[in-house]
Write a structure and sequence with these properties.
Layout (H helix, E strand, L loop, with lengths): L2 H30 L5 H24 L10 E3 L7 H25 L2 H22 L24 E3 L1
Antiparallel strand pairs: 1-2
Helix pairs in contact: 1-2, 1-3, 3-4
């Protein structure tokens, strides 16, 4: 495997891990979100499941075993009500955008276009959840961090 392919595979696996965590996180969001935003949460959940499944296929296409989802993830803060679930949804999207920015950098061609599309979708969802935006989604939140340190969007637990 070439160095470029290995770098791309690492970024694909990180994006897959982030999507696993986002799917888990949206399960929590869905349990606490208000009725008015439940459809939006379900659409985001479905979008992350679809991206996760596509990433599994991409990793297998490179001849590797896809990273497995953890049984549970530590949430970045307690999610006890609808307001906290909205904050969690925005946080999940920011973290997913970060790993897709790494995949954009590590890939080329069609995969790069798909990663840029996923980055854009995550940034748009974050704006909708938060009601505001950042100048460079996926980058500003990570100032001063190494690309490999941003891996999954939540911390796996036992």
């Amino acid at each position: 495997m070439s160095e470029a392919t290995a770098t791309e595979l690492t970024a694909l696996q990180a994006a897959l891990a982030a999507e696993h965590a986002a799917v888990y996180g949206y399960g929590v969001v869905g349990g606490r979100i208000g009725e008015a935003r439940r459809t939006e949460a379900r659409a985001a959940y479905d979008a992350h499941r679809a991206r996760r499944d596509a990433l599994v296929r991409a990793v297998r296409g490179l001849g590797a075993d896809p990273v497995a989802a953890s049984a549970a993830y530590a949430l970045p803060f307690p999610v006890a009500d609808a307001a906290a679930s909205v904050r969690l949804a925005a946080e999940l999207e920011d973290r997913v955008a970060g790993v897709y920015s790494d995949l954009v950098r590590a890939s080329s061609g069609t995969r790069r276009q798909e990663a840029a599309g996923a980055l854009r979708e995550a940034a748009v969802r974050a704006v909708r959840w938060r009601g505001g935006s950042v100048a460079f989604p996926g980058l500003a939140e990570r100032a001063g961090t190494e690309p490999s340190a941003s891996g999954a969007s939540a911390t796996p637990t036992a």
